[in-house]
Write a structure and sequence with these properties.
mainly alpha, transmembrane helix, about 0% strand
Length: about 70
């Protein structure tokens, strides 16, 4: 699968950027959820954590793509 992504032109830098963007998005999702008057603090925390879990996947994908780029 990584090889196919590499062949399609997906670069490791994009995956790293996605990881950092998901960290930022987790703060935004948490903040927006906290601002809603009817939502509880627990729900806000769940939104932030849910989006924050995407970051390690993007970073791992970035490492795999970087290794594929090195092999070229």
């Amino acid at each position: 699968m990584i090889e196919k992504l590499h062949e399609a032109g997906v670069r490791s830098e994009w995956a790293y950027a996605g990881g950092f963007a998901s960290i930022a998005l987790s703060f935004v999702a948490w903040g927006i959820s906290r601002a809603k008057p009817g939502d509880s603090k627990d729900q806000s925390d769940r939104w932030g954590i849910f989006v924050g879990h995407w970051a390690p996947s993007f970073f791992a994908l970035g490492v795999a793509l970087k290794l594929e780029e090195i092999d070229d």
